[in-house]
Write a structure and sequence with these properties.
Layout: H1 25-39, H2 47-69, H3 74-92, H4 105-130, H5 137-158, H6 161-175, H7 190-198, H8 207-228, H9 231-243, H10 249-261, H11 268-285, H12 290-305, H13 313-322, H14 326-355, H15 370-377, H16 382-392, H17 397-412, H18 422-456, H19 458-469, H20 474-491, H21 494-504, H22 506-511, H23 516-528, H24 538-547, H25 551-562, H26 569-574, H27 591-613, H28 622-636, H29 638-641, H30 648-673
Length: 674
Amino acid sequence: MAGAPPKPPAGSNLPPEIAPDALDEGTAARVERLIEEEEGIQNRFTGALGLGATGLALAMSLFHLWAAWDIVPTTTLRFVHVGFAMALGFYLFPAARRFRDRLMPWDIVLIAAGLYCTWYLIDGGDALLDRYVFPEPMDIVVGWMLVALVLEATRRATGWIMPAVAIAFILYSFYGNLLPPPWSHRGYDAERLIPHLTITLDGIYGTAVDVSATLIILFTIYGAILQSSGAGKFFVDFSFALTGGKPSSAGRTVVLSSFLLGGPSGSGVATTVTLGTVAWPMMKRVGYRADDAGGLLAAGGLGAIISPPVLGAAAFLIAEYLKLGYLDVLRMAAVPTVLYYASLLFMVELDQRRLGAGAVTAESLAVTPAGELARRYGFHFSSLIAIIVFMALGYSATLAVLYAMAVAVVLSWLRRETAMTPRRLVQALAGGAVQAVGIAATCASAGIIVGCITLTGLGLKFSEIAIQAAGGSLVVTAIYTALIVWIVGLAVPVTASYIISAVVAAPALMKLGVPDYAAHMFVFYYAVLSEVSPPTALSPFAAAAITGAGPYRTTLQAWKYTLPAFVLPFVFVTDPEGVGLLLSLTPEMGWLDVAWQILLAAAGLAALAAACQGHARRPLGPAGRLGFALAGILLIFPALAAPLLPVPVAWGAALAVLLLVLDGRRSGRHASLT
């Protein structure tokens, strides 16, 4: 039945929208391993251990739901949040794959140590916070324990790279006095560094953990409820039915489904896998090569991270860092998200011409008609607007997602097969907590890095170094910043990449006059690029496992599909009126200027899509591709070309029209000859 969530194989970590027989055993194993690289290797306990895991995860969810409704002291909430993450992390994530599905003695010891550290911090209260400058010996011992436990929990849940980066920053804090200028600082000992990282709210328990404890976990619980009620499967089925019957329906289905799945999933890899299992057969039928299909699937998965209302975890951090309402972040993300998907649509329309794709009808795929699906399960669309509606009514983001959960649970009872029964609700609440473990551990480790950066002053030094290296040029500084964020993203997950870059890289742009919100959105979008960048390009690798293509060829294709859209962030920071794409106004701008900016960006993306695909009406030669690329740049970045060309927009539009006319004539001559 279309709206009923399928049951994945027992013990599987595959997304619940995937039918049990959608992948063969070998492909399922490869895909599951890639998901585990992002989400960690999990124990699949049964019996008493399984009940214990469910009980612990359920307790974590219920505590945070209560904290969202009632008032819990900030420090207590953060301490307990990290304590739960450590306990669940050591319980559910084995030290190594060979220990999977076994609770080892050292796991119990680590759980006890994590609970002890949490109790020590809560019991210490204000007295502990007051003496962080002159800590007692036990404060240092517990602090070292806490740092080690956080790093080990992060290693288990996300891999070894993030802890290694955190350790490098700790060593920099200790021995930075041995480095040459401008990287040197006075050096700090354990009595100064460890309390700063573990007792104050500037280290482990800083802004990142605060956002994880107050918002991110609530959204992971909300996403788990939507998945359990079958919202994800409905969105995929509805997209297939709505876009079926056209030659480009395979590509359109991926684009539409990835946007709709952004709410229930929020994970690039999970969205890629979910779409790939159902869309790849149709894409293959209409002529997509395996690497092309994998690249588009990965690009669609990346879109799930930047799609409102959930976005990625980093979006909540943007709101906290800038002291903005989450609704303001959604507003700023709205146009770039629409333009991202418009760019993908341009690419898939050109795919149809390039591949000569044939029509695939919804009937041939045995898909229920869109109208019938909407009549049966249209209540799932409420998940896309419920949070926004509640925030528009004046509720905080915390209460908005809490009420949206209640709406989702109540509406699920409109259909018997989607009803959130007590058993299913318990599983969803527990599943949401488990999904939050990796994010919480990442935020805690990122807090170690940020604490080291703030204590040593590295962020300010780095900004000065970047500006000097760029010769004070805003454009060059923006290029350096994008490269820095991208390089950081090669090593760590999206959330950690944003946290580090927001402290290190964004200040350089702000010093050159870029509005803080534009600088942070710039950093956010380039942090997201890590999702399709090797060696952590898990979405393309997962897509390649499904399509059978080479992983690195698939990654290059994913870059091709995403490249046009990812030039847009430069508009935010290099064009004074570029903030219009964030639906923000300068004193000299009006809403007509915003509309003009959006129109130019869309036209420029269409031109860049033609250049990337090497195809307009007909295949393009090198000169044609170069011409469309130049036209796209002139349309998107008129401020950059203004010193060289009068009215660069007119030149860009004229060049694009000329190329289209010439291409049309070539197409007409070819038709007459055939």
